[in-house]
Amino acid sequence: MPQLTRRQRHDQKIQRRSLVISGLSLVLVVFALYVLIPLAPGWQAVKTSFFNWDILVRTFPKLLSAFVVDLKIFLWSAPLIFVLSLSIALARNTNRPSLFPLRLFGALYTDLFRGVPVILLVYLIGFGIPGLGLARPYNSPYIWGTVALVLGYSAYVAEVFRAGIDSVHSSQIAASRSLGLSEGETLRYVVLPQAIRRQVPALMNFVIALLKDVALLSFIGPIEVLRQANVYKSLMANFTPYVGAAIIFLCVTIPITRYADYLMAKQRRQRIA
Amino acid sequence: MVLSRTLFSIVLLGASLATNSVFAQGSCSAGKTLNEGRLTIATGNPAYAPWVMDDDPASGRGFEAAVAYAVADAMGFEAGQVDWVRTSFDEAIQPGEKNFDFNIQQYSINAERQQVIDFSASYYTTAVAVVVKAGSTAADTATTGSALRDLQFGAAAGTTSQTFLQNVLKPSRDLLLYDDNADVIAAIAANQIDALVFDLPSALFATAVQIDGGKILGKFPSEASIEPDNFGLLMAKGSELKVCIDEAINSLNASGKLSEIESEWLGDGAGVPVIDLDK
Amino acid sequence: MTAKLELKSVTKSFAQQKVVDDVSLTVATGEMVCLIGASGSGKSTLLRCVNLLEAIDDGEILLDGFDIAEPSLPPDPIRRRIGLVFQSFNLFPHLDVLSNITLAPCRVLGLEKSIARDQALDLLERFSLADKAYSYPDHLSGGQQQRVAIVRALAMEPELLLLDEITSALDPELIGEVLDVVRKLKAQQMTMLLATHEMSFAREIADTVCYLDRGRVVETGAPEQIFNDPVKQRTREFLARVSG
Predict the structure, then answer these.
(1) Which of A199, C8, C85, C165 could be a cystine partner for C60, CB 3.0 to 4.6 Å?
(2) Does the beta-carbon distance from C138 to A194 stay under 8 Å?
(3) Angle at Cα A10 formed by Cα A4 and Cα A16, nearest 5°?
(4) What was the ipTM of the complex prediction?
(5) Gap between the Cα atoms of C119 and C113, Å rounded
(6) Is the peptide bond before A201 cis (omega within 30 degrees of 0)?
(7) Could you tell me the CA-to-CA distances from B21 to A148, B17, B76, C23 in Å, in that order?
(8) For residue C75, what is the nearest residue in chain A, using CA coordinates?
(9) Domain range spanning residue C102?
(10) A50, A131, A236 member nearest B113 (Cβ)
(11) Running DSSP on this structure, what letter comes out for residue B35?
(12) B195-199 and B128-133: which strand pairing?
């Protein structure tokens, strides 16, 4: 065995010590969770109301099929948000005087829709617009709930795109223009690819938030997972179906969150390199 | 049916108990209430008419407000000894100490719920009714099960109306569910649903006051329900007061006081056509 | 020799400060003109004006005798005839080397992708970069990046190449490979206008040297004359400073 240097011996000692400390603290935390909490006087009642295995098993299949509704709403909302927010970001970044009204509209739009909670948009648009007298199927809560989500989210995501576009250095634009690419071609082939790539981690966070906020549509009728859990909660006077819904959401959001973290770490590494 | 019969016999038993025993005022509930010498009653926030008029339970006006004071009286509490608190449904069922002696807001008695909370004997049994907008195409629907099934229905989530729609009527379009009756009414106003299903008193009130041009299409025959919609007072699981409250309700039932309050505040909906589910 | 580029009294100001002041200059076809001068003397701005990245305030810029500074002209068709290489390379970081080079030929000249690719690979071969075709700019050294940037400009087959301090951002040991590329272009009779700090290189390679100070042309002449026998006192002082 080769002789360790002084430094290596020192590092090894520190590493061993931190392993012991983290191992001990993990054991302590697990001990607290599994032993101390059940000792609390109300634990039995909490367990019956929140962690009722029978109820979970009985309600889970229907919660799962209700979650398909959430996924559908998510899948058609996300591309719409992408397109609308990008258009808003471009409108706000335009500096041609003839397009001033567009820029003004973009600014007003983001101010208005960023300033209102999404749930209010869902209520106001979901109940308000069909109330004008639209006939079926154009009065569907799915349509107007989606409109509310798209309007609300695009206002935020537009700002993410705008920040991304601003972060592309002007020398990139100069290089592109010097090669003879037009303003539009420069935007399309040089600026936007870099802007969007740079904002992928931020966009992923909005993907996760949107996935969760789809449940807000339950307020205007659709029986998606939150509403289904809510129904079970009322009928059974038990909160376990909510825990079931939370589990379903976590199964989807945790992988996305991990992926977003991975992308962010990768970008950090690239910036340093 | 089985449950309703059981309940009926409980009611009879209670009534006989009440007539046999001399009512020692307050003796039953002594030492069992949240605050000694006071009765704390909870209701919804907001509380809706015709159950509580003007969201003011202390006025004693409205069916449930009146029932609450009648129960208090039968338990030996004067009106001045009653305190009101407000809770949502979720607060009422969450584990832990309750901040009320009993909670009255149209809670339907069912076996599932009784695993975590206690209900008193029923103080009211309701039918479910279908409400449409007068002048809409849905208003001309025949009062038969097969004609109704093609309408777009809405209801408040977790209510007996919802279970009734899903288990008995089984409409062809996906049901739309909302947080409370107010949102269901907003949905019918916005034409998102053709028809809504409420308990009959709420339906009567909604058509009279809340929905512009609202109309009750019909009510379902009471024997159609899998479980009849019996309202009970809600208490903490294992509440010692349950005996006293049941005793009070049974005596009110026997004396005819309950039906008196009912006809004062709820009307009987006698003119409402009965829907024929078999056609 | 005919004039490829002729500047006549070109003036450009930023916020009342004259950065390019009444500059007149001629670059003949196949000629190599070097702009020398201290930082901030207006060399870079002058090159950006020729490429129409900056609009000039006054004067004329004649390309083949045709005034390209006319404000009503669309700039894109003119820019594609003039290549510009930047001090900081400005490669597109999201594209690999090959795509960096083929983007403009495909999108601007409408070249078919396969043709543009073959052309780009030929150019990379000529400048000993063939093995980097599929690398991303971040993974190249500064010298390699600058050579790719030059190839990217050449892929548009420009009639005139503008080189803006192309070695200033490089570590000393990487400067040589980039200058070799310029020597090669000179041998091929490429018409070039070059702003540089490399006095010895300018002396070696330039046909004409032009000394700029505070936006004005102080002295123009053959390299031997400028470096050995400058006429103007200011030129002498500048050369004494940089050779210091």
Answers:
(1) C8
(2) no
(3) 105
(4) 0.90
(5) 10
(6) no
(7) 62, 6, 15, 118
(8) A180
(9) 3-243
(10) A236
(11) B
(12) antiparallel
Residue in B115, B154, B189 closest to A131 by CB:
B189
| Facing C92 at nearest CB: one of A172, A177, A180 | A172
Distance from C-alpha of A195 to C-alpha of A168, rounded to nearest angstrom = 6
- Global confidence as pTM: 0.79
A176 touches chain B (CB under 8 A): no
Q: How far is Cα C36 from Cα C241, in angstroms, rounded to an integer?
A: 13
Three-state SS for A221? strand
Widest CA span in chain A: 86
Contact A235 B178 (CB under 8 A): no
Q: Does A141 touch chain B (CB under 8 A)?
A: yes
pLDDT tens per residue, range A75-123 = 999 999 999 999 999 888 777 777 888 888 888 988 999 899 999 999 9
C-beta of residue C112 within 8 angstroms of C-beta of residue C97: no
Are residues C159 and C68 in contact, defined by beta-carbon separation less than 8 angstroms?
no
- Can you tell me which residue has the tokens 């006939």? A135
Mark C132-144 as b/e (b = at least 16 C-beta within 10 Å): bbeebbeebebbb
Look-up: residue for tokens 């006051």? B209
Residue A71: which of A259, A239, A222 has the closest Cα?
A: A222
Give the Å distances, CA to CA, from C133 to C96, C125, C127, C185, C193.
Answer: 7, 10, 12, 21, 27
The domains located in chain A, with CATH, are 55-272 (1.10.3720.10)
For chain B, list the domains and their CATH numbers: 2-125+229-265 (3.40.190.10), 128-220 (3.40.190.10)
Q: What is the pLDDT along chain B (279 residues), one digit of tens a residue?
A: 444 555 555 544 444 444 443 344 457 888 889 998 999 999 998 888 889 999 999 999 999 999 999 999 999 999 999 999 999 888 888 877 889 999 999 998 988 888 889 999 999 988 889 999 988 888 888 888 888 999 999 999 988 889 889 888 899 998 999 988 889 998 998 888 999 999 888 898 888 888 888 889 998 887 766 667 889 999 998 999 999 999 999 999 999 999 999 988 887 677 788 888 887
- Please tell me the distance from the alpha carbon of residue B87 to that of residue B236, in angstroms, as a whole number: 13
What is the CATH number for C93? Answer: 3.40.50.300
CB A70 within 8 A of CB A211: yes
Tokens 């083929």, residue located: C102
